[in-house]
Design brief:
Elements lengths: L1 E6 L8 E5 L12 E6 L3 E11 L12 E2 L8 H13 L4 H8 L14 E7 L6 H10 L4 H14 L4 E2 L2 E2 L6 E2 H8 L3 H9 L3 E7 L19 H16 L2 E6 L5 H14 L3 E5 L3 H15 L3 E4 L5 H12 L6 E4 L11 E7 L17 H12 L2 E6 L4 H8 L4 E5 L10 E6 H6 L9 H12 L3 E5 L8 E4 L16 E3 L4 E3 L6 E3 L12 E4 L3 H11 L5 E4 L9 H11 L4 E4 L12 E6 L3 H4 L6 H13 L10 E6 L5 H7 L3 H15 L5 E10 L2 H19 L3 E5 L5 E2 L2 E11 L4 H16 L8 E6 L3
Length: 756
C-alpha cells in the first residue's frame, strides 16, 4: 500500500497522512494536488509533499482523487514553505493558503472572462448634443455628476464638434462607479435615459506584450556604469548586494541592464516592488524592452489570471522576468538567477494579516539562496537592518550619489506651522508659503504633489458642545469621516454608519471634523485653486483594478496637474514636471508610539521629496511641521542619511532593538477581556522561566480591541547569536501547555517575527 503526506489549506501545523487507492497509485507523485476529506465530510484540495510505503500506526483515510497530471509545486518551493513556516512560526497550512492562488485550491471551472463596459450613446457624440444631455439632467444632480466623471476619464470631454482631441478610452462600469462614487441605481438611470449604454466584452487574461526590443535599452551614464560594474564585481563575492542610490539617480536603468545580463545567461529574474501603484510605471518601461518575456503578478489580478501565470511558470515556456508585489515570491521558478528588490526599505513588503506574517525581502533572499541566485536590494533610504548588514560586510554595498543628468536634489524648506497657527495665518492645512508655491507652479504649467498620510475627510468628528466622539462598536478606535459617501468608517473592521446630524449624547447640532484626511485636503485645494486639475490617490480611489493606471497615466500626461495622496505617492514614481512637493503634516508620522517611527518618517519624507525636480529645473519641497527643531527634520533637509543612520544605531544599541536584537511579538486574542488578561499574565510568567529578562509585558497594544476581540501583546527581544531554533521550540512547548487549559480553548495566539 502506498501512502502520501499532504498539506491541507487550513491553519494547521505539519502534514497529514492518507492512503492511496490502487487505481490512483500511478498518478500520485510529489507536488500534485489531491482531493481529501478532512474532519467529518468536508472535501479539501491538498498538495502531496511526500510519497512513501511507511504504514502509519493510526487509522488513515484514503485520498478521493488526483487532480493534476503534472506537479503544481516544485521542490525548491516546498523547501521555501518549510523555512517560512519555521522562521515566522506560522502553520504550514497558512503558508500553503498564502502561496497558492485560490483557483488552485478548488476544482477549477474556467469561463471566459467577461467585463461590463460603459460608453456614450451615438446620438450624444457631439458638443451640441452633450449640452442637450446636461439640460435633460438639470434636476438630477447625481446623474449629472456621474456623466461629468465619465466624460472626463473616457476623454469624451475633449470633443470639438463631433471629433475628440484625445483618443477615447474604454471604461468599465466598475471603474466609473469607483471614480464617481455612485450607486448602481444612478448608473442604471443614465442607461435607461439612453445617454449611456453598457456592453459585455470578453477580456483576455494574459495579454501579449509583443516582441523583445533590447535595442531600446538606454546607455548608462558614467556614474550608472560604475555602479553597474561594482554590482557585477560584488556578486562574485557576495550573494546579496545593497544599491544605495539617491532618488532619481537612474537605478531602474541599472536594473534593466542587469536583467538583460541574466536573460543572456538563460536565467529567470524576479523583480519585486512594494506597491501595486509602482508596477504601472515600471511595467511600461520593462515591456518596452522585454516585450512578452515579462509577466506581472499581484493581488489586483483576478484569481483566474494568477492561476494561468502559475501554470505558465511551470510550463516549458515560462515568463523569463516576473514583476510583482510580495506574493510573487511564491511563484514557481525553473532557472532563477537574479532577484531585484526595489525600495527594499518599504514596510509594505511585510505581510500583516492574515498569517503567515512574512517579510518578502527576507523570503526573496532565502528563495535566491535556494536557487544559487543573486539578490540586489535597491533604495534611496536603506532600512537600518540592510544598511547595517552592508556596513558589516554581510552584504555588498554600492553607492550612487548623483542624480541622472546631474539634476540637483530638491531644495527642502521647513515651515513652522505652530507659529503660523498662533498667528492665525494658516488656511486649513496650508501655509501662505505653500499656497504661493502651488500657485506659481500651476501658472508655469508645472505639477504639484501634496502628501497627507491620512485618508478620508477627517480622522474623527467631535461634538463641540459636549466633546462626544463616535467610536467603533467592534474596535477601540474612533471612526473616520468620509464626506463624499456621508459615512463614518472604521478602517480596522469596516463598520460604517451615516454621519449623524445631532449629537446622540447631548442633542447639539455642532458636529465638526477634527484633523485632515486626503478627502478634506482635496476639498480645500478645489476652493483655493479652482483652475487646478486635481486627482487623489489613496485606498478609497484605487479600489478597482484600473484605478492606479488611470490616475498615474493622467498625471504623467498632464491631464491632471495636482496629485493629493497618502504614502502611495511617496514611492518610486517618476514624473517629469513635478516642481513642488508639499508635506502637509510631518508630525502625524513622527508622533507615533513605535521604535521605528523616526526611521519610517525619515524614509517617507526623503522619498516623497525625491519626487520633485526630476527632469529639468531643481524642485522644491515644503515640509510643514510643528517641531522644526527635531534632528530628524534637519537630517531630511540636509539629505544626511549617514548622520541619521549613526544616531539611529546608537539609540537601537542602547535600547536593545534591531539590528542588534531580533524581535518576536506574541499576540493573544479572546472575546472576553478577563480571559485574555489572565492568559497573557500566565504566558508571560512561563516565558520568563526560560527566557528571563528578554520577555517584556504583557501589555495592551495601542488598539486593544479589534473585531470584538480583546488583544494582549508580549514582546521578546533576542540578542544576535542566540539559538533561534531552540527559542522557537520553547515558545511552541509553552503555547501547547497553555492551550491545554480548558479556560483557554477559544484563545487565539499567534506570532509576529521581525515586526515592522
Amino acid at each position: 500500500m502506498k501512502y502520501v503526506d499532504v498539506i491541507v489549506p487550513l491553519p494547521l501545523e505539519g502534514t497529514f497522512t492518507y492512503a492511496v487507492p490502487e487505481n490512483l497509485r500511478d498518478r500520485v507523485r510529489f507536488g500534485v494536488r489531491v482531493a481529501v476529506t478532512f474532519g467529518t465530510s468536508k472535501v479539501h484540495t491538498a498538495i502531496v509533499v511526500h510519497v512513501h510505503d511507511n504504514v502509519p500506526d493510526f487509522k488513515v483515510k484514503a485520498i478521493i482523487d488526483v487532480i493534476d497530471d503534472q506537479p503544481m509545486l516544485l521542490t525548491q518551493q516546498y523547501q521555501l514553505w518549510k523555512w517560512l513556516s519555521a522562521y515566522y512560526m506560522a502553520p504550514l497550512g497558512d503558508v500553503y493558503n498564502a502561496a497558492l492562488p485560490a483557483g488552485l485550491k478548488v476544482e477549477e471551472n474556467y469561463k471566459p472572462r467577461m467585463e461590463t463596459y460603459i460608453d456614450l450613446c451615438p446620438p450624444y457624440r457631439s458638443e451640441q448634443a452633450l449640452s442637450v444631455a446636461f439640460d435633460l439632467l438639470k434636476r438630477a444632480q447625481n446623474q449629472q455628476e456621474v456623466l461629468t466623471h465619465f466624460l472626463r476619464i473616457s476623454h469624451w470631454e475633449t470633443l470639438q464638434g463631433s471629433v475628440t482631441r484625445e483618443p477615447v478610452v474604454d471604461i468599465t462600469r466598475e471603474e466609473l462607479m469607483n471614480v464617481a462614487r455612485c450607486s448602481y441605481a444612478v448608473m442604471k438611470r443614465l442607461v435607461e435615459r439612453k445617454i449611456l449604454f453598457t456592453y459585455e466584452r470578453e477580456v483576455g487574461r494574459l495579454g501579449d506584450a509583443g516582441e523583445e526590443h533590447v535595442e531600446h535599452i538606454k546607455r548608462l551614464n558614467q556614474a550608472q556604469q560604475d555602479a553597474y560594474n561594482q554590482i557585477v564585481f560584488q556578486f562574485l563575492k557576495k550573494n546579496v548586494v545593497l544599491l544605495h542610490g539617491v532618488t532619481s539617480s537612474g537605478k531602474t536603468e541599472i536594473y534593466i541592464h542587469l536583467i538583460k545580463k541574466a536573460l543572456d545567461e538563460k536565467k529567470q529574474v524576479l523583480y519585486l516592488l512594494p506597491e501595486i501603484a509602482l508596477t504601472v510605471q515600471i511595467t511600461s518601461r520593462l515591456r518596452h524592452v522585454f516585450g512578452n518575456k515579462l509577466g506581472i503578478y499581484h493581488s489586483k489580478y483576478s484569481d483566474a489570471e494568477r492561476v494561468e501565470i502559475w501554470k505558465k511558470q511551470l510550463s516549458s515556456h515560462p515568463y523569463e522576468v516576473i514583476l510583482g508585489a510580495r506574493s510573487a515570491v511564491f511563484l514557481p521558478f525553473q532557472q532563477l538567477g537574479l532577484v531585484i528588490i526595489d525600495e527594499e526599505h518599504e514596510t509594505s513588503f511585510k505581510q500583516q494579516d492574515p498569517s503567515p506574517r512574512y517579510h518578502a525581502r527576507s523570503v526573496a533572499i532565502m528563495l535566491a539562496q535556494m536557487y544559487g541566485a543573486k539578490t540586489l536590494l535597491g533604495t534611496a533610504t536603506p532600512s537600518a537592518e540592510s544598511y547595517y548588514n552592508a556596513t558589516q560586510g554581510k552584504y555588498g554595498l554600492v553607492s550612487l550619489t548623483t542624480r541622472y543628468q546631474g539634476i540637483e536634489l530638491p531644495e527642502i524648506q521647513v515651515i513652522d506651522t505652530k507659529d503660523l497657527q498662533r498667528r492665525k495665518m494658516m488656511t486649513g492645512p496650508f501655509s501662505p508659503t505653500l499656497i504661493a508655491a502651488i500657485n506659481e507652479a500651476l501658472q508655469n504649467d508645472q505639477q504639484v504633489i501634496l502628501f497627507q498620510n491620512r485618508r478620508g475627510f477627517a480622522p474623527m468628528i467631535e461634538c463641540r458642545t459636549c466633546g462626544w466622539v463616535p467610536k467603533c462598536t467592534n474596535c477601540d478606535v474612533s471612526l473616520t469621516m468620509h464626506k463624499r459617501m456621508n459615512l463614518l468608517t472604521c478602517h480596522y473592521c469596516g463598520y460604517t454608519y451615516q454621519v449623524p446630524t445631532v449629537c446622540p449624547a447631548c442633542g447639539a447640532t455642532d458636529l465638526r471634523g477634527r484633523g485632515y484626511g486626503t478627502e478634506k485636503v482635496e476639498e480645500y485645494v478645489r476652493q483655493l485653486f479652482p483652475e487646478a486639475r486635481v486627482a487623489r490617490m489613496d485606498l478609497d480611489t484605487t479600489r478597482t483594478r484600473n484605478a492606479y493606471e488611470r490616475l498615474i497615466d493622467d498625471f504623467s500626461c498632464g491631464r491632471t496637474n495636482l496629485l493629493i495622496g497618502t504614502q502611495m505617492v511617496s514611492k518610486g514614481l517618476d514624473f517629469d514636471r513635478v516642481s513642488v512637493v508639499g508635506i502637509l503634516n510631518a508630525d502625524t508620522m513622527l508622533n507615533y508610539p513605535d521604535f521605528r517611527a523616526y526611521e519610517h518618517a525619515f524614509m517617507m519624507m526623503a522619498q516623497v521629496s525625491g519626487r520633485a525636480g526630476r527632469k529639468g529645473a531643481r524642485g522644491m519641497v515644503l515640509l510643514q511641521t510643528k517641531n522644526k527643531d527635531l534632528p530628524v527634520i534637519r537630517q531630511v533637509v540636509e539629505n544626511d542619511y549617514e548622520g541619521f543612520f549613526k544616531a539611529l544605531l546608537d539609540e537601537r544599541r542602547m535600547f536593545s532593538y534591531p539590528p542588534f536584537y531580533r524581535l518576536v511579538y506574541v499576540f493573544l486574542r479572546h472575546r472576553y477581556e478577563q480571559v485574555v488578561e489572565t492568559a497573557a499574565v500566565e504566558l508571560g510568567s512561563r516565558l520568563r522561566q526560560g527566557l528571563g529578562e528578554r520577555v517584556l509585558g504583557p501589555d495592551k497594544p495601542s488598539i486593544a480591541r479589534v473585531k470584538n476581540l480583546y488583544i494582549r501583546k508580549i514582546v521578546i527581544k533576542l540578542e544576535n547569536g542566540i539559538d533561534y531554533q531552540a527559542v522557537r521550540q520553547y515558545l511552541r512547548s509553552v503555547q501547547q501547555q497553555l492551550l491545554q487549559d480548558k479556560r483557554y480553548a477559544a484563545l487565539q495566539m499567534y506570532y509576529d517575527v521581525d515586526p515592522m
